[in-house]
Protein backbone atom coordinates (compact mmCIF):
# COMPACT_ATOMS: atom_id res chain seq x y z
CA UNK A 1 0.00 0.00 0.00
CA UNK A 2 2.87 2.39 0.79
CA UNK A 3 4.32 1.91 -2.71
CA UNK A 4 0.90 2.46 -4.25
CA UNK A 5 0.45 5.69 -2.31
CA UNK A 6 3.79 7.00 -3.55
CA UNK A 7 2.97 6.07 -7.14
CA UNK A 8 -0.44 7.73 -6.91
CA UNK A 9 1.18 10.91 -5.63
CA UNK A 10 3.75 10.88 -8.43
CA UNK A 11 1.08 10.21 -11.06
CA UNK A 12 -1.12 13.03 -9.79
CA UNK A 13 1.86 15.37 -9.56
CA UNK A 14 2.95 14.59 -13.11
CA UNK A 15 -0.50 15.28 -14.54
CA UNK A 16 -1.32 18.38 -12.49
CA UNK A 17 2.08 20.05 -12.62
CA UNK A 18 2.31 19.53 -16.38
CA UNK A 19 -1.17 20.78 -17.20
CA UNK A 20 -1.45 23.60 -14.65
CA UNK A 21 2.04 24.43 -13.43
CA UNK A 22 4.14 23.63 -10.38
CA UNK A 23 3.29 26.79 -8.46
CA UNK A 24 -0.41 26.74 -9.30
CA UNK A 25 -1.07 23.35 -7.70
CA UNK A 26 -1.08 23.20 -3.92
CA UNK A 27 -0.68 20.27 -1.58
CA UNK A 28 -4.39 19.98 -0.84
CA UNK A 29 -5.15 19.59 -4.53
CA UNK A 30 -2.50 16.89 -4.85
CA UNK A 31 -3.90 14.96 -1.90
CA UNK A 32 -7.42 15.24 -3.29
CA UNK A 33 -6.48 14.05 -6.78
CA UNK A 34 -4.25 11.22 -5.57
CA UNK A 35 -6.54 10.03 -2.80
CA UNK A 36 -3.59 9.94 -0.40
CA UNK A 37 -3.89 11.26 3.14
CA UNK A 38 -1.67 13.99 4.55
CA UNK A 39 0.06 11.67 7.02
CA UNK A 40 0.80 9.20 4.23
CA UNK A 41 2.16 12.00 2.05
CA UNK A 42 4.70 13.03 4.68
CA UNK A 43 5.84 9.45 5.10
CA UNK A 44 7.06 9.60 1.50
CA UNK A 45 8.05 13.22 0.97
CA UNK A 46 9.30 16.01 3.20
CA UNK A 47 7.20 18.49 1.27
CA UNK A 48 5.88 19.52 -2.12
CA UNK A 49 9.31 20.47 -3.51
CA UNK A 50 10.62 16.99 -2.80
CA UNK A 51 7.63 15.54 -4.64
CA UNK A 52 8.34 17.80 -7.64
CA UNK A 53 11.97 16.65 -7.69
CA UNK A 54 10.97 12.98 -7.52
CA UNK A 55 8.41 13.49 -10.28
CA UNK A 56 11.07 15.05 -12.52
CA UNK A 57 13.47 12.19 -11.82
CA UNK A 58 10.84 9.64 -12.82
CA UNK A 59 9.84 11.56 -15.93
CA UNK A 60 13.47 12.04 -16.98
CA UNK A 61 14.10 8.29 -16.83
CA UNK A 62 10.86 7.49 -18.66
CA UNK A 63 11.41 10.09 -21.38
CA UNK A 64 14.99 9.16 -22.17
CA UNK A 65 14.17 5.44 -22.24
CA UNK A 66 11.30 6.16 -24.63
CA UNK A 67 13.43 8.43 -26.85
CA UNK A 68 16.17 5.84 -27.29
CA UNK A 69 13.64 3.14 -28.09
CA UNK A 70 11.69 5.25 -30.58
CA UNK A 71 14.78 6.53 -32.38
CA UNK A 72 15.93 2.91 -32.63
CA UNK A 73 12.61 1.96 -34.21
CA UNK A 74 13.02 4.81 -36.70
CA UNK A 75 16.41 3.54 -37.85
CA UNK A 76 18.76 4.95 -35.21
CA UNK A 77 19.52 7.95 -37.44
CA UNK A 78 20.29 11.29 -35.76
CA UNK A 79 17.51 13.09 -37.65
CA UNK A 80 14.97 10.58 -36.32
CA UNK A 81 15.03 12.49 -33.02
CA UNK A 82 12.98 15.25 -34.64
CA UNK A 83 10.40 12.76 -35.91
CA UNK A 84 10.14 11.04 -32.53
CA UNK A 85 9.60 14.23 -30.55
CA UNK A 86 7.13 15.49 -33.17
CA UNK A 87 5.07 12.32 -32.70
CA UNK A 88 4.95 12.92 -28.97
CA UNK A 89 3.93 16.54 -29.51
CA UNK A 90 0.93 15.48 -31.58
CA UNK A 91 -0.88 14.42 -28.42
CA UNK A 92 -3.88 16.57 -27.52
CA UNK A 93 -2.49 16.77 -23.99
CA UNK A 94 0.78 18.34 -25.20
CA UNK A 95 1.71 21.43 -23.20
CA UNK A 96 5.32 21.84 -24.24
CA UNK A 97 8.35 20.49 -22.42
CA UNK A 98 7.77 19.72 -18.74
CA UNK A 99 11.39 20.56 -17.96
CA UNK A 100 11.36 23.91 -19.76
CA UNK A 101 8.05 24.74 -18.10
CA UNK A 102 9.47 23.88 -14.68
CA UNK A 103 12.62 25.97 -15.18
CA UNK A 104 10.45 28.89 -16.29
CA UNK A 105 8.70 28.71 -12.91
CA UNK A 106 11.66 27.77 -10.73
CA UNK A 107 14.22 30.23 -12.04
CA UNK A 108 16.95 29.89 -9.40
CA UNK A 109 19.74 27.79 -11.02
CA UNK A 110 20.78 26.57 -7.57
CA UNK A 111 17.33 25.23 -6.71
CA UNK A 112 17.33 21.39 -6.73
CA UNK A 113 14.22 21.38 -8.93
CA UNK A 114 15.81 23.68 -11.51
CA UNK A 115 19.02 21.66 -11.33
CA UNK A 116 17.17 18.43 -12.14
CA UNK A 117 15.41 19.99 -15.11
CA UNK A 118 18.69 21.38 -16.45
CA UNK A 119 20.36 17.99 -15.97
CA UNK A 120 17.67 16.40 -18.13
CA UNK A 121 18.46 18.82 -20.96
CA UNK A 122 22.16 18.05 -20.62
CA UNK A 123 21.45 14.31 -20.77
CA UNK A 124 19.39 14.65 -23.96
CA UNK A 125 22.15 16.78 -25.48
CA UNK A 126 24.65 14.03 -24.65
CA UNK A 127 22.38 11.52 -26.38
CA UNK A 128 22.31 13.70 -29.50
CA UNK A 129 26.11 13.83 -29.44
CA UNK A 130 26.17 10.05 -29.15
CA UNK A 131 23.94 9.68 -32.22
CA UNK A 132 25.98 12.18 -34.20
CA UNK A 133 29.24 10.52 -33.23
CA UNK A 134 27.86 7.16 -34.40
CA UNK A 135 27.02 8.83 -37.72
CA UNK A 136 30.63 10.10 -38.02
CA UNK A 137 29.56 13.73 -37.75
CA UNK A 138 32.33 16.23 -37.19
CA UNK A 139 32.24 18.36 -34.01
CA UNK A 140 29.45 16.16 -32.64
CA UNK A 141 29.30 17.95 -29.28
CA UNK A 142 28.92 21.37 -30.85
CA UNK A 143 26.35 20.09 -33.33
CA UNK A 144 24.42 18.38 -30.52
CA UNK A 145 24.11 21.68 -28.65
CA UNK A 146 22.87 23.34 -31.82
CA UNK A 147 20.31 20.59 -32.41
CA UNK A 148 19.12 20.89 -28.82
CA UNK A 149 18.34 24.53 -29.54
CA UNK A 150 16.39 23.43 -32.62
CA UNK A 151 14.46 20.80 -30.67
CA UNK A 152 13.61 23.11 -27.79
CA UNK A 153 12.58 25.84 -30.21
CA UNK A 154 10.31 23.44 -32.08
CA UNK A 155 8.76 22.21 -28.82
CA UNK A 156 7.98 25.72 -27.61
CA UNK A 157 6.64 26.76 -31.02
CA UNK A 158 4.45 23.66 -31.26
CA UNK A 159 3.05 24.32 -27.80
CA UNK A 160 1.60 27.72 -28.72
CA UNK A 161 0.79 27.14 -32.40
CA UNK A 162 -0.88 23.82 -31.56
CA UNK A 163 0.71 22.02 -34.51
CA UNK A 164 3.96 20.20 -35.18
CA UNK A 165 5.08 21.99 -38.35
CA UNK A 166 8.02 23.53 -36.49
CA UNK A 167 9.63 20.10 -36.17
CA UNK A 168 9.81 19.75 -39.96
CA UNK A 169 11.52 23.15 -40.16
CA UNK A 170 13.94 22.21 -37.40
CA UNK A 171 14.70 18.89 -39.08
CA UNK A 172 15.36 20.68 -42.37
CA UNK A 173 17.95 22.91 -40.69
CA UNK A 174 19.52 19.90 -39.00
CA UNK A 175 19.68 18.05 -42.32
CA UNK A 176 21.50 21.03 -43.82
CA UNK A 177 23.98 20.84 -40.93
CA UNK A 178 24.81 17.26 -41.89
CA UNK A 179 24.97 18.07 -45.60
CA UNK A 180 27.41 20.90 -44.89
CA UNK A 181 29.80 18.35 -43.40
CA UNK A 182 29.98 16.30 -46.58
CA UNK A 183 33.34 16.68 -48.33
CA UNK A 184 33.22 19.05 -51.28
CA UNK A 185 35.12 18.38 -54.52
CA UNK A 186 38.44 20.26 -54.54
CA UNK A 187 38.50 23.47 -56.51
CA UNK A 188 41.57 23.77 -58.72
CA UNK A 189 42.55 27.34 -59.36
CA UNK A 190 43.92 27.98 -62.81
CA UNK A 191 47.69 28.56 -62.81
CA UNK A 192 47.83 29.52 -66.45
CA UNK A 193 49.41 26.24 -67.56
CA UNK A 194 46.26 25.18 -69.33
CA UNK A 195 46.21 28.37 -71.31
CA UNK A 196 49.85 27.97 -72.21
CA UNK A 197 49.24 24.36 -73.27
CA UNK A 198 46.38 25.43 -75.42
CA UNK A 199 48.57 28.09 -76.96
CA UNK A 200 51.34 25.58 -77.63
CA UNK A 201 48.96 23.07 -79.14
CA UNK A 202 47.05 25.55 -81.23
CA UNK A 203 47.22 25.07 -84.99
CA UNK A 204 48.65 28.10 -86.71
CA UNK A 205 46.66 29.60 -89.48
CA UNK A 206 48.05 28.53 -92.85
CA UNK A 207 50.43 31.01 -94.39
CA UNK A 208 48.90 32.70 -97.36
CA UNK A 209 51.25 33.00 -100.30
CA UNK A 210 50.46 35.73 -102.71
CA UNK A 211 51.38 34.81 -106.24
CA UNK A 212 51.96 37.34 -108.86
CA UNK A 213 51.06 36.40 -112.34
CA UNK A 214 53.75 36.54 -114.93
CA UNK A 215 52.78 38.81 -117.70
CA UNK A 216 50.93 36.83 -120.36
CA UNK A 217 49.98 33.97 -117.95
CA UNK A 218 46.40 33.30 -116.85
CA UNK A 219 45.18 31.42 -113.73
CA UNK A 220 42.61 28.69 -114.20
CA UNK A 221 40.65 26.72 -111.71
CA UNK A 222 41.57 23.04 -111.99
Automatic annotation (TrEMBL):
Q: Which SUPFAM superfamilies match?
A: Homeodomain-like, Tetracyclin repressor-like, C-terminal domain
DNA-binding region(s) from the entry? 26-45
Q: Which UniProt keywords apply?
A: DNA-binding, Transcription, Transcription regulation
Return any one Pfam family short name: TetR_N
Q: Which GO terms describe its molecular function?
A: DNA binding
Domain HTH tetR-type, first and last residues per copy: 3-63
Its domain of life reads Bacteria
InterPro entries attached to this UniProt entry: Homeodomain-like_sf, HTH_TetR, Tet_transcr_reg_TetR-rel_C_sf
Q: Where is this region: Disordered?
A: 178-222
* Protein name according to UniProt: DNA-binding transcriptional regulator, AcrR family
